[in-house]
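Notes from the 1:1 (GR / supervisor)

We went over the backlog. Supervisor wanted to see one worked example end to end before approving the batch request, so GR pasted a single chain during the call. The sequence is below; no edits were made to it. Supervisor asked that the structure be written out right there so they could see what the output format looks like.
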Amino acid sequence: SSKGPQLRAGTPKAITAGRWSRGAGLIAFVLWELRHPRPILDVRRFAHRRFAGANLAVALFFLAVFGAFYYLTQHLQFVLGYDALATGVRMLPLAGAVFVGSALTGYLTPRVGMKWTVSAGMVGGTTALALLTRIDAGSSYGDLVAPLIILGLAIGLALSPCTDAIMGSFPESELGVGGAVNDTSLELGGSLGIAILGSLLATSYSDHLSDATAGSRLPASALATAQDSVGAGYAVAQGIGDKARQLAAQAAHASDPQQAGQLKAQAGQLAEGARQMKDAVGSAFADAVAHTSLVGAVVLGVGTLAVALLLPRGTAPEAEPAEEEEKELVGSGANQPG
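Structure output shown during the call:
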């Protein structure tokens, strides 16, 4: 067997090697597409402001939206105590607002231009995330309704014009490529949103929980388990509560009054510890949601400025070479000897 260093999955060397290989693959793809006479995707299209701005808007918007969905559903289920079905029902205001936003953008975009409707939608998304920074341990579902509605309106306003711009940049024979580009921007943004905002959420929750339980008698192993996720935190609190009930039951059946008193006192301490642990987990996760929402709002806000600067003015689409390219390809094919 080899005695040299092993490159195992998950190690820093393996992660670094994976990043370099993906980067090299992307560069190779771009160079190949630039040189090929019939590229799958002509990457020169990204030099056109309308096409590049639409893709950037889709990626940034879904980075923020998917990240928000990731932690809002957890907040509804774990902190506020709704089951999966009830959580889905409480997300319906967002879905309804998307329909309204889509209807508005169909009316506004031909009149004021894509630049303004997309920018307005991204400003709305930034505002929704900014409102989520007010979430704390005492917040209820009512505090989430306004951000959900604003976020839904923003999605409807911004995304339809972006999809139209991306698809309109391709000739009819390449609409499949256009759809793939749109989906890639969406998936890339969503993946980055869950990865970046999800990691930030986990780190923030762990730090807040550590601060909230400082000075308690919670064993280090139990704290480490609780810091893994909000679900694990509530499981630890439930475990402490179960232990308290077991001691209370033993106290009720103890024949020795002194032993019964000791068990009852221990059960009371554990019950209080379980309650404090539950409160600490809920408070830590709510603070993590507020902190992560702030970062998401900053990212989307900066992205809004970039997209607003990138997208061209006016209601008419920016001239794209799609039709000319198709004519050139047809012409070159006709001129080839049979």
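Supervisor's comment: Confidence is low (pLDDT under 50) at residues 1-10, 318-323, 326-334.
Batch request approved.
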